[in-house]
Design the sequence.
């Protein structure tokens, strides 16, 4: 994040300097600079224009900040707590890598991935019996995502260019889309049994209500 802020600030300074220069040129064309007072006014105009452009180029953050992730409570199961902690540590590394990569599209993907992954860990913390379901997610998917980000960041730091480098960057962006879909699928899978239980409860409730003569049509039919 700090790296991205520095880059935005550097671009803003460049834009402001250019705008100030253009303002002086235009001012000198409209008002002839033949008195020292005119030079003072021209300087003031240049500073004002430069300041405005600097603010506009840097961008004013009017959006709401995303709420901080609440700490995931301990389950009391040492194995599950260790699993969740390890996952949280990898997510922290992913955030740190993301902060060093000046790529808006990749950052957007990583922010979504971070949100989904945290929901996965929170679900496991709430229902420790689901921990075995995320074993592959922990052992392969998450570490591979981190490895791809590290590779992307290193190419940027070393300014690696060329057809192969661009192809690799493109492949990483495409892979992140696939990974994000897989993470969402993993979250859905964790809730699959819960949804099945709810559906079963509705079926039983419907049967009992019909037997007692309290309903004529099915509950599910009324919602369709």
Sequence:
């Amino acid at each position: 994040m700090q790296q991205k802020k520095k880059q935005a600030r550097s671009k803003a300074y460049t834009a402001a300097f250019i705008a100030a220069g253009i303002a002086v040129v235009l001012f000198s064309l409209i008002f002839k600079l033949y008195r020292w007072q005119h030079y003072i006014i021209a300087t003031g105009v240049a500073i004002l224009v430069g300041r405005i452009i600097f603010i506009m180029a840097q961008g004013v953050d009017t959006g709401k900040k995303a709420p901080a992730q609440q700490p995931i409570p301990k389950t009391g199961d040492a194995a599950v707590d260790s699993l969740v902690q390890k996952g949280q540590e990898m997510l922290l590394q992913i955030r740190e890598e993301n902060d060093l990569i000046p790529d808006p599209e990749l950052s957007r993907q990583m922010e979504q991935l971070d949100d989904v992954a945290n929901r996965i860990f929170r679900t496991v913390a709430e229902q420790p019996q689901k921990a075995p379901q995320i074993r592959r997610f922990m052992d392969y998917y998450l570490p591979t995502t981190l490895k791809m980000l590290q590779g992307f960041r290193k190419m940027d730091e070393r300014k690696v260019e060329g057809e192969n480098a661009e192809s690799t960057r493109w492949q990483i962006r495409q892979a992140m889309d696939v990974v994000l879909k897989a993470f969402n699928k993993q979250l859905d899978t964790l809730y699959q049994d819960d949804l099945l239980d709810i559906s079963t409860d509705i079926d039983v409730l419907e049967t009992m209500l019909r037997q007692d003569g309290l309903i004529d049509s099915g509950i599910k039919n009324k919602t369709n």
Remarks:
- Confidence is low (pLDDT under 50) at residues 1-5, 59-67.
- The CA atoms of residues 6 and 63 lie 19 Å apart.
- The two ends are 47 Å apart (CA to CA).
